[in-house]
Amino acid sequence: MASSDLEDLCFHINMKISTIKKTLQLRNIGQEPSLKSMLCKIGHEMVLLHDLLNKMETEVQQQEKLKDLLKELQKSAERDQNEAQHLRENIPAHLPKPTQSCITGPTVKCEEQTKVVEPERAKKPTKEPRLIKEAPLITAEEFESVPAYMKGRLTYDQINAVVQEVNKAVVGKYKILHQPLKSMNAAVRNLYHRFLEEETKDTKECKNILP
Fold first, then answer.
1. Using CA of residue 105, residue 93, residue 172, residue 178, what is the dihedral sign?
2. Would you say 173 and 206 are in contact if contact means Cβ atoms under 8 Å apart?
3. Residue 159 and residue 95 in contact, taking contact as beta carbons nearer than 8 Å
4. Which one of 34, 66, 72, 155 counts the least CB within 10 Å of its CB?
5. From CA 96, how far away is CA 150, in angstroms rounded?
6. Are 67 and 73 in contact (CB under 8 A)?
């Protein structure tokens, strides 16, 4: 047997002997009345300390789970932000135009829109008011027929909101153009002349708005 093996065996035996001695000493100490209460107190504190360590371990595990959830939430928020930025930078120049009349649409907004933009009656009863044709709102069926890559960029309500704003601008412009010059104030008259200057042979026969 090599000397290193004998040294390891001796070290192991000495450690066992030392452990037995300490165990016997602790047993003797536990039998002394003066030290028994102190040992009980130490044992009670060890139990409390063990419970506290278990609670701390549970809290650490919960915090780690919460940290993972927050990381996932952060990644999701970043993805949504990137998608929103992409949509903002890539809004299509021409929105899809509906083919059906607003009268056949399922929404009530068309009726409200017709009431709002109904032109004022002329002062002279013999003349009929000029009707300003508006772009109809899209229907739910028409929106569902839009390609998926375009439908994901704007919602149904957003598209109709844009159409309503365009109609509002068109109605405001052509109300001014149809208004008698004598009834205009200075600001409205300036708009009237500006609208006439902006007209070209290509836009004269159709309703239009310019920025």
1. negative
2. no
3. yes
4. 34
5. 9
6. no
Question: Coil, strand or helix: which one is 193?
Answer: helix
For residues 115 and 148, the model is more confident at: 148
Cα distance between residue 29 and residue 27, in whole Å: 5
Question: Average of pLDDT values for 24-40?
Answer: 74
Mean pLDDT estimate for the chain: 77
Q: Determine the average pLDDT of the residues in 101-130.
A: 54
Supply the DSSP string of 36-84, one letter for each residue: HHHHHHHHHHHHHHHHHHHHHHHHHHHHHHHHHHHHHHHHHHHHHHHHH
Residue 58 CA to residue 100 CA, distance in Å, equals 63
- The tens digit of pLDDT for each residue in 171-194 reads 888 888 788 888 888 888 888 888
Q: How far apart are CA 116 and CA 136, in angstroms?
A: 14
Tell me the average pLDDT across 30-37: 71
Encoded tokens for 209 = 């708005």
The tokens for 157 are 């309500």
Structure token pair of residue 38: 């102190």
Model pTM above 0.70: no
Residue pair 140/128 in contact (Cβ under 8 Å)? The answer is no
